[in-house]
Structure formats: C-alpha cells, structure tokens
C-alpha cells in the first residue's frame, strides 16, 4: 500500500514537472539572462523604443514629452543611432515598469545610447528605483553637459536665485534672491527627474527675500512668501531625485540632487 502511494506521488511530481516545464524554463531564463539582442523597429520618443514588438523604456534617462523643447531633436537623435539596427538590451534590477514596458540600457557595440542622450542634452538623468552601477556616469555626463537641456540661462537673475532649502521629505522648497534687485519668476518652472512639473504663476521675488514652494493637496491661497504646488500625491522620491529650476524660456537656472 505504501509502495503504491510512493509510485503515485512520484508520477504526480513528474507530471507537474512536464506541465510546468515551459514556465520553469522561462522563469530560469529571466533570472539568468541580464541582456538580450534585438532589432529596433520603431522609436516612440527620446526614451522609448519598440524592438521586435516589445516596448522598451530606456533606463537612467527622461527625455522631453511631445510639445516640449527638444522632443523632436531627442527622438531624431535616437532614431539615427538605433532605428532598424541590432542593439543589446542590458537589464537593471527591475525588468519591467508599471506599464509593462521592458526597462533596459541600450547598447550599439560599446556605445551606451542612454548615456549619450544625456551627454548631448537630450535627456536628464533619471533613477526613480534607486541609484545603480551607472548612476555616477549619468550624473557626471549631466554635470559636464552645456547644450540643449543643460544650457544655462542668460536671464539677469541666473546668479541671484539660490536654493536655500530642499526638504524633500516634507515636500518643501525655499528659494532666496540674494541680489539687490527684484527677479521676475513668472512662468519659471520646477521639475523633478521624471514628469512632475510646476510653473510659477505671475510672481516677482523681491530683493533679499525668499519664497517657499509647498506641495499640497489642499486648496491653499498663494501669497508673497508661499506658493502652493497643488498635487494629490508626492513629488520627490525617497530613493533619490533631482530638482531642476528653469527660466520662462526653459533654460537652466540651477539643479540639485540628493
């Protein structure tokens, strides 16, 4: 009787193994493979491609959205390098994003395409899931870039505005005007590494004064000392982020990472 049970159990194990072999094989492949060679069929924008019917979001970068400055240039730059080419996708810690897109660094030979987009000022560095082995390279590329998205503002207040406080945990930012004249910050923008944007309303920061930008989901009223960034969720990520301040023409005033 016991022998029959053992034989039956062994048979069930073998049957389950056969049924689930393809699943187990696929799981093992995903665990062991950290790169894949594909052909790029289409470029969606400066940070998204389609390769063999799979949408791939480029890791480590964020490029302009449609309608924003340098959207077209970033897309065309990426097309010139990868469209209809064989590329290698190198995967990070997370294989997919919340939209189901594959996350990868794209290489053409030894060229890190993602990194080149930052070097040319067609994307800012972007690490929402935390800093990986490429983080320092991407940050350095941004620091050394001086064109396109990296181009410094020529506004008279470019050297006046200081980031006095960046309290990312409490979602508070304070800017200070150290000059002896007022600075018109109307339509200046604050942006994180990702898609979160804030435009200043009609606003002038008086000389040697400060203004506090507070992220809030309440219906608060702006005044000369405080301006509320109305959102229902957070702006600054716990794993690290960057604040970019730009003038009304989209040129860079300052940035700071943590």
Describe this structure in words.
- This protein has 258 residues and is α+β, with helices and mostly antiparallel strands.
- The chain is built from five helices and 18 strands.
- Strand 17 and strand 18 (252-257) form a beta hairpin.
- The longest helix is centred in the N-terminal third of the chain and has 18 residues, at 2-19.
- The protein is elongated.
Write the layout of secondary structure elements.
Blueprint (H helix, E strand, L loop, with lengths): L1 H18 L1 H12 L2 E11 L2 E4 L2 E5 L1 E3 L8 H12 L3 E5 L11 E7 L2 E2 H7 L4 E3 L8 H10 L16 E7 L4 E6 L5 E2 L4 E3 L5 E3 L4 E2 L4 E7 L9 E5 L11 E5 L5 E6 L1
Parallel strand pairs: 3-6, 15-16
Antiparallel strand pairs: 1-2, 1-5, 2-3, 4-8, 5-6, 6-7, 9-10, 10-15, 11-14, 12-13, 12-17, 17-18
Helix pairs in contact: 4-5
Large-scale geometry: elongated
Strand arrangement, largest sheet?
A: 1-2-3-6-5
Low-confidence stretches: 12-32
Name the structural class.
Answer: alpha+beta
Total count of helical runs of at least 4 residues: 5
Mean pLDDT: 90
Q: What's the total number of strands?
A: 18
Radius of gyration: 24 Å
The CATH class label of the largest domain is Mainly Beta
Enter the CATH topology name of the largest domain: OB fold (Dihydrolipoamide Acetyltransferase, E2P)
The proportion of residues in beta strands is 25-35%
Q: How many domains, in number, for the residues?
A: 2
Give a short account of the largest sheet: 5 strands, mixed, barrel
The ordered string of helix (H) and strand (E) elements is: HHEEEEHEEEHEHEEEEEEEEEE
Terminus-to-terminus distance: 67 Å
At CATH level 2, the architecture of the largest domain is Beta Barrel
- Kindly state the percentage of residues in helix: 10-25%
């Amino acid at each position: 009787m016991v022998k029959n049970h053992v034989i039956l159990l062994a048979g069930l194990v073998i049957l389950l193994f056969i049924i689930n072999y393809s699943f187990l094989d696929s799981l093992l492949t995903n665990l062991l493979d950290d790169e894949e060679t594909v052909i790029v069929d289409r470029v969606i924008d400066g940070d998204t491609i389609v390769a063999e019917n799979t949408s791939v979001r480029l890791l480590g970068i964020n490029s302009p959205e449609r309608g924003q400055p340098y959207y077209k240039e970033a897309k065309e730059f990426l097309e010139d390098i990868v469209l209809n080419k064989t590329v290698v996708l190198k995967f990070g810690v997370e294989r997919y994003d919340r939209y189901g897109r594959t996350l990868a660094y794209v290489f053409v030979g030894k060229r890190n395409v993602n990194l080149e987009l930052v070097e040319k000022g067609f994307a800012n560095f972007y690490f929402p899931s935390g800093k990986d082995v490429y983080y320092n390279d991407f940050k350095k590329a941004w620091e050394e870039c001086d064109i396109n998205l990296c181009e410094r503002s020529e506004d008279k207040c470019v050297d006046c505005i200081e980031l006095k406080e960046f309290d990312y945990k409490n979602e508070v930012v304070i800017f200070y005007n150290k000059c002896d004249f007022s600075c018109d910050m109307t339509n200046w923008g604050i942006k994180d590494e990702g898609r979160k944007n804030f435009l200043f309303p009609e606003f002038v920061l008086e000389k040697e004064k400060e203004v506090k930008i507070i992220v809030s989901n309440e219906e608060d009223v702006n005044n000369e000392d405080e301006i509320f960034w109305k959102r229902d969720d957070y702006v600054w990520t716990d794993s690290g982020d960057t604040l970019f301040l730009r003038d009304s023409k989209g040129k860079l005033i300052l940035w700071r990472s943590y």
